[in-house]
Amino acid sequence: MAAPSAFGEAGEARARRPRRDREVNRTKLLAAAREVFRDHGLKATLDDVARHAGLGVGTAYRHFPNKQALIDELVDDMFARVEEATREGVEDSDAWRGLTASLEHVAELQALDRGLREVVLHSDRAVPAGLRHREQIRRNVDLVVERAKEQGVLRADVEPWDLAVIQQMLAAVTERSGQPDLWRRYLRLLLDGLRAGPERTEPLPGRDYGKRLDVPGANWMGPPSPSTDVPAPPHG
Amino acid sequence: MAAPSAFGEAGEARARRPRRDREVNRTKLLAAAREVFRDHGLKATLDDVARHAGLGVGTAYRHFPNKQALIDELVDDMFARVEEATREGVEDSDAWRGLTASLEHVAELQALDRGLREVVLHSDRAVPAGLRHREQIRRNVDLVVERAKEQGVLRADVEPWDLAVIQQMLAAVTERSGQPDLWRRYLRLLLDGLRAGPERTEPLPGRDYGKRLDVPGANWMGPPSPSTDVPAPPHG
DNA sequence: TTTAAGCGGAGACGCAATCTCCGTTTCGTG
DNA sequence: CACGAAACGGAGATTGCGTCTCCGCTTAAA
């Protein structure tokens, strides 16, 4: 107990200034992870990330307790960009243009980032990290949908979570085709279907699911119930 | 060479009638595999299949050289049903109704069978087995699309392979949502977008891909080039 | 110079799936 | 019924792969 070892001389150990390379390497790792996960998806190994950063795996594990922790930090960024994209949609006074731009912009983000795509497709992963932004994303989407209906440009039987499902479909197109722009073709098709028009008489199926459908894949645009406080996913 | 061992006495070994349980078990295995892959996807283990059949793994491996061989046999069945579904579409004189029914029926098959869904989503797997049916499926789809355009009910800038991509999107909806019927909602949306209508002025993006787009995921409805004779995929 | 913070990366570890091996059981036959 | 070949069962050998640890070496700060 009283041994004057590495811990502290007597009361306070005078803290040595942290080495500069520490933060430099941390930044390198984050940048590398961003690129590697963007290009190869979230199942790239931490060895890949470290090598791409010009560092050893050991270093990676000194900076992040495990792979998931690293991912979490990036996912947060990703969702921030999604949030921004949906906000742009809200700010447009032409609700249809806003809705379109919103869908397009989010789809663009996805198409360019395989990691984000995987998060969107398997939204379970997003639970821990994206959480901070999801509530705002949901609000933005709700707003755009609501206003588009008010302006009479969006068919009335569309629900906000439909947009989440649509993003999943577009993600699937990119994922499977490898064509980074092919999704635009099907978004056009879907938009033509979404647009309010007198010639459409049959309502969409599935309104029996209710307003807030608990579709596992659709919840990344906002948690289904406001009081769910992160039910501790497996995580690692 | 001349050793009178287990092979045959002199000229012909009198063949003993094969044991009855052999074929019975083979059938059991196929049935079990169908169910297991339908419910749990193609990555279920052969141990799972064998147990579900009430047999040991060893037996499974005596009947099928490896897991892929077993899958191949089933995939062939699956594609046969897809072929049938598309044929129904062709036989309807109302091309729009045929097109709709075709899409619906194939989507239904997918929604009920996770194995098929995986084959459709990752069409690479289908290369060895579905091959026999794919050419006919392609012909059926081409025909329905062509006739629907002739009848003026389908927008002119739609290509046959669009339907393959659409199936992938629907598969993704089922896969991620877990809702076995949710795809109907988005098929409706897409059909509204596919329908020819005077109010649509902008053509679909992506016509620059040409008539026979080499979209990896879209080729399960028919090989891109007729002369490609199975480029020997990894397979195992 | 000294010293501890930080690095590198080989390899231990864990896990999961495929497939083999051989003792045991079952079926067909005389 | 008795016999032998055919078929079975399932423990575990094998393989593959990704995560994370450990410790000798390097380097920044004092």
From TrEMBL, chains A, B:
Residues 23-82 form the HTH tetR-type domain. Residues 223-236 have a biased composition (Pro residues). It comes from the Bacteria. InterPro entries: DNA-bd_HTH_TetR-type_CS, Homeodomain-like_sf, HTH-type_TetR-like_transc_reg, HTH_TetR, Tet_transcr_reg_TetR-rel_C_sf, TetR_SbtR-like_C. Residues 1-23, 197-236 are annotated as: Disordered. Pfam families: TetR_C_43 (PF21597), TetR_N (PF00440). Keywords: DNA-binding, Transcription, Transcription regulation. This is TetR/AcrR family transcriptional regulator. It comes from Streptomyces cylindrosporus.
